[in-house]
Structures are given as structure tokens and as C-alpha cells.
Design a protein that fits this description.
- It contains seven helices and seven strands.
- It is α/β, with parallel strands linked by helices and about 250 residues long.
- It has one domain: Rossmann fold.
- It is globular, with a radius of gyration of 18 Å.
- Bound molecules: NADP nicotinamide-adenine-dinucleotide phosphate (NAP).
- The site of NADP nicotinamide-adenine-dinucleotide phosphate (NAP) has 32 residues, from α1 and β2.
- The site of NADP nicotinamide-adenine-dinucleotide phosphate has 32 residues, from α1 and β2.
Length: about 250
Amino acid sequence: MVKAMSNETIPQRKVALVFGGSRGIGAAAASRLARDGFAVALTYVSRPDKAQEVVAAIEAAGGEGLAILADSAEPEAIRAAVAQTVERFGTLDAVVVNAGIMRMGTVDVFPLEDLDRMLDVNVRGVFLAIQAAVAHMRDGGRVITIGSNTAVRSSFPGTSVYALTKAAVATMVKGVAFDLTPRRITVNNIQPGPTETDMTAGVMSHLEGMLPLGRIGQPAEIAGLVSYLAGAESGYMTGASLTIDGGFVL
Ligand SMILES: NC(=O)c1ccc[n+]([C@@H]2O[C@H](COP(=O)([O-])OP(=O)(O)OC[C@H]3O[C@@H](n4cnc5c(N)ncnc54)[C@H](OP(=O)(O)O)[C@@H]3O)[C@@H](O)[C@H]2O)c1
């Protein structure tokens, strides 16, 4: 006798939204999640060409992708990106809050507008992205932020503002994780060290010599951790900040 399949046995397509998914770590995360079977929406702010490249690659591999223009400094744009994702793909299971900027300068000369922009994108934008996403997320979903190992160790002059934004994310994640335990939504923070992207172009050879493992990280390596945190096996982990940095903070 053929038994009718319950909903539990029908694999449901999962949906992910990557804030800042057009380049670097975010692009690698979007591609990896698509490979894992997620339909993936990704936001961008300045590079529609790169965002479309990521979507085209996802679609060429048989997946579903959607590029959305949304400045993470703009609360309405963040909310609209979540709404567009849900409208297109029907639900939301995982959000990767990766969009971030790094402007450097020592305390004596750091411009107010750079301070405000970094707080807007790297801190307020992260909180608002999580807030907007979980309003639509299925129970048991996944929130993943991309912080930085600078939250643990500031190794250079000129990084105080960047480091404080990433330390704020690590602390925020603990509180938000607590808030979302009743819904079994896990909230975890990845803290990469030097990773080869446009953000670090030009300083890589300088950094390489400082890394105990003797090399720079690749975006795909960070995406591997995103994949784990977005998957079923990470369900017992929440509120954690995981540093992945070639031993830089040792
Ligand atoms: N690379 C590293 O060594 C490193 C180390 C630790 C932590 N991180 C963190 O990892 C994350 C990604 O860094 P990355 O190195 O991959 O940077 P990246 O190569 O500069 O890429 C940044 C990505 O974020 C998007 N983005 C930037 N500002 C945005 C905004 N206001 N609204 C929406 N999207 C925005 C960019 O979109 P567009 O393409 O449209 O500009 C791009 O997709 C950041 O949070 C960064 O702080 C990086």
C-alpha cells in the first residue's frame, strides 16, 4: 500500500537572503547557499553588475536567485528587500547580514560622517536587517551576521571605529539570540580575519606575514561556515561568535 506523504517528508525549498551579496564574502555565501539548495535573494548598493553576475551563476547552476538594490544604511530599503524576497520566494528561512564597510583613520582625525556611515551600515543596518527578517522567518530559522576578528583584537592603529562596530555586532547577537529562543531561530556571528576581497585589496601582502597559518583566507572558506550555520546540524548553537582567521587572534 502506498502511504500518503506527510508534509514532513516532502522536502521544502528553503529561502535565504544575503545582505551585501554582490561581492566578496557575501557573494561566496550566496553561491554556497544556492549550492546547498536555497533560493537566494541578495542585496547590493553600488555594483548591480556584480550582483547580476552572482544571480546568473546561481541560475546557470539550476538554482534561483534575485538581486535587490538596497542600501543597508536605509531602514526602508532593508524592509523592502525582505518584503521583495518573501514576495518572490514565498518565505524566509535564513538571513546572512554581511553588508559592511571599513573606513580607517586614527581618533584624532576620524571624520564624523565616516563614523555615522559606519554605525548606520555596520550596526544599525545589522539590527534592522535582523528585525525585518525575523518578522517573516519561519520558526527554526537561521540568522547569521558577519562580524570581524577585530572585535576580539585590534591589531592596527586606525581601526577603532571598525572594531567597535564589529564588537557591537557580537554583543547584539547574544541578546537577539535570547529574544528568539522561543521561536528556535538561532542567531550566530562569524568573525573572519583577513580574507581576500575588494575590501582588503592592497593590504593583503602586508597582512600575510602576520598570520600564523601563513596565508590569507578565501571567501569560500567563510562561506563554508555560513553553510554550516544555515543548515540543520547547527541547531544547538545560538548566540555564538565564531572566529575564522588563520590564527590571527592567537
Ligand atoms: N575581507 C575581510 O578581510 C573581512 C574580515 C573581517 C570581516 N569582514 C566583513 O565581511 C563583510 C564583507 O566584507 P568583504 O570583504 O566581502 O567586502 P567587499 O568585498 O567590500 O564587499 C562588500 C559587500 O557588501 C555590500 N555593501 C557594502 N555597503 C553596503 C550597503 N550600504 N548596503 C548594502 N550592501 C552594501 C557590497 O555591495 P556593492 O557590491 O553593491 O558595493 C558588497 O556586496 C563585511 O561586513 C566586512 O566588514 C571582512
